[in-house]
Amino acid sequence: MKIVKASATEAERLKSLRLAALKDAPYAYGAEYQVDREKPITFWQQALAGSNWFFTSIDGVDIGLIGVEKAAEDRGSDCWIFGWWIEQSFRGQGVTALMLSAIDKLCIENKWLKQGLGVWPENKRAIAAYLKLGFIEGGQLIPSRSKPGQLYLPMYRNLSI
Q1: Exposed, middle or buried: residue 110 (CB in 10 Å: 0-12, 13-18, 19+)?
Q2: What is the fold of 2-158?
Q3: What mean pLDDT value characterizes the chain?
Q4: What is the phi/psi pair of residue 93, to 5°?
Q5: Domain boundaries of the chain, sorted by first residue
Q6: Would you tell me the crossing angle of helices 41-50 and 11-24 to the nearest 10 degrees?
Q7: Mean per-residue pLDDT for 66-78?
Q8: pLDDT tens sequence across 108-140
Q9: Beta strands in the chain (DSSP E)
């Protein structure tokens, strides 16, 4: 298994993985497949320029995606993890822990020691996975920025140096 930080020239790869995630698990994200598939390549180039994306592959085949960036002040954390996806046949095999470990290194380098992420409260499988990885529930549900009228559960994890 290989987990690598995306380079600025991999917009097509990012788009492909993001669309695979949205098609596979539309219930898990604030974005929609039909909308994102129409976005121009410049959108994906900007996504790479503004955030840190990591691709996960096995034997040259992409099976996962995760993003992390410095958190906005209202997030209650140093960084925000988003877009986390693993191809269905690889779930439950420890891939999530390896992906998190890969971004932990970047977080420590940037002194982002409190990680945060948001999950829809009805996504029990994801919540269970995050709890297993050391995240804790953040309490009050928060209004979604991407889906007006929907609330998400914030979850947090502290890294130690």
Answers
A1: middle
A2: Aminopeptidase (3.40.630)
A3: 96
A4: -120, 15
A5: 2-158
A6: 100
A7: 95
A8: 999 999 999 999 999 999 999 999 999 999 989
A9: 2-5, 52-58, 61-70, 79-86, 114-119, 136-137, 142-143, 151-158
